């Protein structure tokens, strides 16, 4: 019997994992229900199968929770979901020189609508120049998009290191795991990834037409921001504002959301106001930590004032307060 060997595994995996075809056949012939469209047996079976997939993907990829796993038609869809859902005219996004057209083409389209695209330099060997990339992460950078591995040369990019740089600056990090999900270990939490886009038909050995997007709690933190704003307003009335118009930072910017009006004060004097003191003492209770500390504010970094906060969740916020003193310590 003649055997065919597939060498274009970067495009799609073949043969598929044992049991994939059988599982699809079983669904089509034995289940057939729509998820969330009924309470009868086949619909419940389909919903249970989808939940199990979310749970397994969350465990495999180090996601925050199964409910943060979004199933999509593919990795390109997932990437567009992030790019076009997050970026607005006037925003800046940084990408590596190794990105796939699934990232570059929509960004070229968005450039014409006022989004600034900055390229993080790579060496001739196909490796990201981390030091040069750090210098490109300006205070008005809202998003960094990074492929985990190049589909051309196979280079693995330093996602964890870039993630750490983004996390301390309050910049949202989206990783394109088209070539690595299922093949290379990924842990969103340890690698500081805010959104992870991946296909089902490559390293995960599934069929075409399925993919996913996993987002952190920071991505869905706006209700938390409103909660903090509500309590701040109770404390300071009309002098508390929900901060949505600072250059490069709005309610769409992950975790940078709450600020206070300091009537009669210059911006550089803000940290001395009662409003700022209240924020430092209370923000961590809601899961927010400072994106920048006092020693990182420089003349060329005016946008990164220490009163800007990122949502990381109550547990991590408490840990950062206790271990790194990012915010002033307080008690419940």
Report on this model:
The protein is α/β, with parallel strands linked by helices and 332 residues long. It is built from 10 helices and 11 strands. It has helices at 20-31, 41-61, 75-86, 101-111, 130-136, 159-169, 188-191, 222-236, 274-282, 314-324, and strands spanning 69-72, 92-96, 116-120, 141-147, 172-176, 195-199, 211-215, 240-242, 258-260, 288-290, 309-311. The strands form 3 sheets. A 7-stranded mixed β-sheet has the order 1-7-6-5-4-2-3, sandwiched between helices. Strands 8-9 form a two-stranded antiparallel sheet. Helix 7 (188-191) links the parallel strand 5 (172-176) and strand 6. It is globular and about 80 Å long. The relative contact order is 0.11. The model is unreliable at 241-268, 292-307 and 326-332 (pLDDT under 50).
Terminal CA distance: 71 Å
Q: Count helical runs.
A: 10
Structural class: alpha/beta
Q: Helix and strand string, N-terminal first?
A: HHEHEHEHEHEHEEHEEHEEH
Please report which band the strand proportion falls in: under 5%, 5-15%, 15-25%, 25-35%, 35-45% or over 45%: 5-15%
How many individual β-strands? 11
What is the CA-atom radius of gyration, in angstroms?
22 Å
Biggest sheet record: 7 strands, mixed
In terms of per-residue confidence, which ranges show pLDDT below 50 for 5 or more consecutive residues?
241-268, 292-307, 326-332
Which bin fits the share of residues in helices? Answer: 25-40%
Molecular shape: globular
State mean pLDDT (0 to 100 scale): 77
């Amino acid at each position: 019997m003649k055997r065919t060997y597939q060498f274009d595994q970067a495009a799609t995996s073949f043969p598929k994992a044992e049991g994939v075809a059988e599982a699809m056949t079983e669904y089509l012939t034995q289940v057939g229900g729509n998820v969330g469209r009924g309470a009868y047996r086949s619909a419940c079976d389909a919903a249970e199968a989808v939940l199990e997939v979310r749970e397994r993907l969350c465990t495999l990829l180090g996601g925050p929770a199964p409910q943060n796993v979004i199933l999509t038609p593919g990795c390109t869809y997932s990437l567009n979901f992030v790019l076009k859902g997050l970026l607005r005219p006037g925003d800046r996004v940084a990408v590596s020189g190794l990105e796939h057209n699934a990232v570059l083409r929509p960004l070229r389209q968005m450039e014409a609508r006022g989004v600034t695209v900055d390229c993080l330099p790579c060496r001739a060997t196909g490796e990201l120049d981390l030091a040069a990339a750090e210098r490109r992460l300006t205070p008005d950078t809202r998003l960094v998009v990074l492929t985990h591995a190049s589909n051309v040369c196979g280079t693995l990019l330093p996602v964890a290191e870039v993630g750490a740089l983004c996390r301390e600056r309050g910049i949202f990090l989206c990783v394109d795991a088209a070539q690595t999900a299922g093949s290379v270990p990924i842990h969103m939490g340890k690698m500081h990834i805010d959104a992870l886009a991946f296909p089902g038909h490559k390293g995960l050995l599934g069929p075409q037409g399925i993919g996913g997007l996993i987002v952190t709690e920071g991505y869905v933190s706006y209700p938390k921001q409103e909660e903090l704003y509500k309590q701040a307003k109770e404390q300071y009335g009309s002098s508390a504002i929900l901060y949505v118009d600072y250059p490069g930072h709005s309610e769409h910017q992950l975790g940078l959301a709450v600020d206070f009006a300091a009537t009669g004060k210059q911006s550089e004097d803000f940290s001395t106001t009662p409003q700022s003191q209240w924020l430092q003492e209370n923000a961590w209770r809601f899961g927010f930590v400072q994106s920048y500390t006092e020693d990182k504010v420089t003349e060329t970094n005016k946008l990164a004032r220490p009163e800007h906060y990122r949502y990381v969740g109550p547990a991590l916020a408490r840990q950062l307060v206790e271990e790194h003193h990012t915010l002033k310590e307080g008690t419940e």
